[in-house]
Amino acid sequence: MARSPTRSTRRSLPARLFLLLVKLAVGFVLLSALWVLAYRFINPPLTFTMAGDLLAGRGATRDWMSLDEIDRDIVRGVIAAEDSKFCSHRGFDWDAISDAARRNASGGRIRGGSTISQQTAKNAFLWQGGGYARKGLEAWFTFLAERLWGKRRIMEVYLNVAETGIGTYGVNAGAQRYFGHDAAAMTRTEAARLAAVLPLPKGREAIAPQGFTRRYGNSIAARIGVVARDGLDGCVYEGTVAPRDRTPPPSRKPQSLPGDDVETATPPPPPPPAEVLDSLPAAPAEPPSPAPDAAPPAPVVEPAEPEDEPPQPDPEPQANTDAG
Known about the structure:
Layout: H1 7-41, H2 48-55, E1 61-62, H3 72-82, H4 94-105, H5 116-125, H6 132-148, H7 151-161, E2 163-165, E3 168-169, H8 171-179, H9 188-197, H10 211-230, H11 273-279
Parallel strand pairs: 1-3
Antiparallel strand pairs: 2-3
């Protein structure tokens, strides 16, 4: 005779499920911590975003460069553009997050408040796109990176895995693509333009940028000086010797330039009419119009000859009525 399940047996099923969840959570924590710790010493070989480009047939070009070799202006440029408090926060800029939340709640264009640490965690360990699940994982990996890597390694990984163009990853590959030389020596303008591409790498160009990208790059170039003056990149070079400023080599022909393959769901706003008029080529001078020909002489109309009148019949002789 089969034994009916006791109350303790019935309660054991939820307990077993709870125990399973606890084991999964502990396993995820341990594995994710080991994953992040491994990337402290090993450069990430592939990211989910790179894999997506490879599957889409766009390729994935990256040329890893040590932070000791990367021009300091590009470090200052991404801090000026993406995260001015990079050296003062522990992964999250709560003021920027709350400000972005207020602006997004008021409607209009959606803005993010992600720090460089958060973007590095997303690029190295996760996928692109939104969603609360991905945001939650991003926060966890950001926490681990801040504790296990430190600011210097976060910046180095960020500058080598961030997307800088269609199928192009890292500032070194981006510099070679747009400017024809590596990222060891860059002008301030080049560094600013490359930093301006980072928020929308598939829809912006660092070479001969137009409209918003050009104005944004000019703004970043001005703020690079503020970062240098205030030492906002000091944590990146703490305990090491910062690279000296180098003269960039002459620009060569870029390896590949975005053209018709630039992807953007929201194109940048059109430039002001004054910029459009300034960029238009001068109209060619019109040749002088020939003098109008003399009016043709009026046709001579000869007067029509009068038609011959029909002959009139002779009058009939009248009878002589006089008596003889």
